[in-house]
């Protein structure tokens, strides 16, 4: 920062000297830049090596630029997080804090989820999705949202919601908004999202229309080669009955996979008793 402008007697005297070519100069020697001439400043301090001064300013400029870039990136990630709509309950679920409890099935599921993140560039290019099916409390949602959170941190556009909410959003976009339509509503869940994670797929959802909307979104994403992750309490057969065999098969294309997580739930009382 420059010195504040003052017009004390001394400063005026100094300025007069500078203008008259009578500024007090001396020779200095910089350890980095060698010999230089410095001037006595109005604040009675020597101006120092001019090259060091210039470098200091340049460094400060660079630091400011880095700060700005960091803020822009942080703001962008924050925006991605908001858009992802991941339920609060799952915002802190990561692949790092998933406990396998020495369980082979869980360890396998975790390894597969890690691989999915590591190879997401390929999955993204080929539209490889994932189906996680199995009973309640096996950690499916934790792993799926863990994948979502990891990819959000990498700057991918992710959305992770349950089907009930998806249906609400479609209704809102299709019917409550000006110029809305089913078509427009479906589009909103296709191209703008690098990864769509749908939880509670196949839960006893009511209407045929709702199932059709879900089918259309999954199918549109398939056609655009965009990956989708489905989380379901149904087993593979039930899911096929619900969405159609072809839809489930297609999820496994492009490097996609189905993870069947059918071990006893950690939330069941028997399991708790076993551990106590
Ligand atoms: Zn210097």
From TrEMBL:
The keyword ATP-binding applies. Signal peptide: none annotated. InterPro entries: AAA+_ATPase, IstB_ATP-bd, P-loop_NTPase. Transmembrane segments: none annotated. Gene3D superfamilies: P-loop containing nucleotide triphosphate hydrolases. Pfam families: IstB_IS21. The keyword Nucleotide-binding applies. One of its GO terms (molecular function) is ATP binding. Residues 126-252 form the AAA+ ATPase domain. It comes from the Bacteria. PANTHER family: ATP-BINDING PROTEIN RV3427C IN INSERTION SEQUENCE-RELATED, CHROMOSOMAL REPLICATION INITIATOR PROTEIN DNAA. This is ATP-binding protein.
